[in-house]
Amino acid sequence: MRPTLPVVGTAVAALVLAAAPAVAAPSTDALISEVYGGGGNSGATLTQDFVELANKGAAPFALDGFSVQYISASPGATTQWGVTPLTGSIAPGKTFLVAQAKGTGGTVELPAPDATGTIAMSGANGTIALVSGTAPLTCKTAADCAADTRVKDLVGYGSAAVREGAATGALSNTTSASRTAGDTDDNAADFTVGAPTPTNSKGETPGGGNPDPDPDPTPGDKRIHDVQGVTRVSPLVGQKVTNVPGVVTGTRATGDRGFWIQDVTGQDDDPRTSEGVFVYTAGTAPTVAVGDSVLVSGTVAEYRPGGETGSNQTLTEITSPTTITVSKGNPVPAPVVVKNVPAGYLPAPGGSIEQLPLEPAKYGLDHFESLEGTLVQVDDARVVGPSNSFGEVWVTVNPDQNRNQRGGTTYTAYDQPNSGRLKIKAVGTLPAADVGDVFAGATVGALEYTNFGGYTLAALTLGTHTSSNLQREITAQQKQAELSVATYNVENLDPSDPQAKFDRLADGVTTNLRSPDVVVLEEIQDNNGATNDGVVAADQTLRKFSDAIVAKGGPRYEWRQIDPENLKDGGEPGGNIRVGFFFNPQRVSFVDRPGGDFSTPVQVVKKNGRAALSVSPGRIDPLNDAWANSRKPLAGEFKFRGRTVFVVANHFNSKGGDEAIHGRNQPPNRSSEVQRGKQAAALKAFTEQIRAVDKGANVVLAGDLNDYQFSPALKTLTGDGNLKALIDTLPAAERYSYVFEGNSQTLDHLVVSKNITRFSYDVVHINAEFADQASDHDPQIVRARPSTGDANVDRVVFALEDILDCLES
């Protein structure tokens, strides 16, 4: 679906394909040339179903008394043919457009139809017949319909039972069946499936066929800056404009097809109004070329990527266009060089910003909006978010804004999302690019607003990709007397993943993390991954991972975890992701206390005057609503050199449902924070239970908390000073373990009790900054000297351990 603000209703229908042999004798004049039933459905651009007829004969073909009829793919005893009576005629070599039912989606109207019906066709499978007469057909099989002399032509598509020869392929909300040549009475041979191209008897198409044989090449009374206006929403939205002048600066023949035009003679002096705009041609590839001077007529629309109910802003465009080409080969306007946009991000009125006048000198995203549709240039663009499989990469136009040591741009506060970030969407092949790489020289393209990231440079030319040779980090070697605890989100790991993924993750554990004593794992899936069949055990997943670590020269890790209740912990449906522990039994021992299952809460008990767990491993408060459809924390009791360490594995609820930081509502609604706040409170309450028994207990909270170091959830955990988030010990620009939309940020955390004072901490950057990733998260590790619970004893023990470490080194 491609919704826009001025869109009116659309087709609910869809088409269906048939399933059995031949029909009417081959037609030499009138026949069915195209069928489409996805109009108005989800993902459709056209609002309406249609049937297109054509005349292959040398004389006009009269349609009076004829009808177009439709039947579903598998007609039953009570199924009837739907009928649309026809009048008029089809000129030789021309087409005749019959519009059918509308749905609620889509953004592009059909060209003016020559006839209109109300049949709701299937978008995938069905049969259309051109019939001499208006009485409904009664045939329900291919053979019976072939014998009915009223059938002039017939097309079955998808799984249709009624068809000529073999049915043509199944259709979709974005594809139609179009005749490729004449009529051989074999639908599969005569038709091909592709983008819908409805054309009426005047030759009009949604992409701008010119119905006027003698168009007026005079510019109308509106210019592009009138269309764009001084706010994010056009003052002309929903209105028709005529002969808006511009020069074509770029074209796009795939995806959201269309072309960009820019005014070169009638600009105003208002920095808020853009002089460029996108002309959307829907399913039709643009026929104009760069350098064409054109006059465009159509309807002004505001397209909201992701749907009208979402939080994204909109892209101003001209839809359902007709285009007059005045001249060709004109010079293209010089691109606007974009650099050092204002550091302010967006105004924050406490609601929608869409009607606020732009302030391009004050806010970075207002600056981008004032150039929407304009040809822009970014010089020596430094990559701040690695390239992805969609041909996208994030760069910055503010090279010094929150720059970290590895070339990224760090997100340091809610009100500082780094205004200089800009997504580049390559028209051609995008080279694999890592954070810190540079596209040297000029990257040029049109500026637009898209889903997943907001302001985007639709690059027509890319600068020269220059690698920064970013290296994957290797953490420091721990000392013998140090307990090392790491956290690693392994991104939906299950046995069906390629061995290469297990090997990459294992190499990260053994080489980059140097085989920690304890590894807290997130996103371990069950033994058959996303297959939803009730399986919850994950022993095969963990064993395959453990084996891969051994193969890489690492220790034979043992593991502890608790199988979740089926489908209760969120994540990929059927995957049953959970948290768990790997531990090296040569370095640390796990205190097993049976009784823990998915619903039994772990309690803090007193044993020999010290805190202990009632079950180990055990889930923390698993029946608390805070953990609904989310992973439950797993507590484990470990022994290291005679000292007890409580480690809690965590994976808080995701940010799904939060509004985009670049969206229309400012500040954005972060609705997912509510649940994480409750989760943090439950986790904090558990740590306070430990403190109530033993204030000197060693506690390590580890995992993917899905929130920033400056978030309310982290403040709930650390606000009283009894726990400290180790990410805060790093310089502000280095606090990240994840890269999203060009923002280096932290979602993963290691949080320790305040009595752990001897430690070193590291975020080990091996994934998030690279186009080639084993996971989308970077692991973290802390190397610590657990406390004995007595500060005086600690001083002696630590001193002795320091001496032993020196002797061993």
How is this structure best described in words?
The chain has 809 residues and is mainly beta. The strands form ten sheets. Strands 31, 34, 35, 36, 38, 39 and 42 form a seven-stranded mixed sheet that branches. Strands 9-8-3-2-12-13 form a six-stranded mixed sheet. Helix 5 crosses helix 6 and helix 7 runs parallel beside helix 8 (712-718). The protein is globular, with a radius of gyration of 32 Å. The two termini are 64 Å apart. Residues 3-23 and 210-214 have low confidence and may be disordered.
- Residue-averaged pLDDT: 92
Beta-strand level of the residues, as a percent range?
Answer: 25-35%
Residue runs with pLDDT of under 50 for 5 or more positions: 3-23, 210-214
What does the main sheet amount to? 7 strands, mixed
Terminus-to-terminus distance: 64 Å
Q: Give the overall shape, derived from the CA principal axes.
A: globular
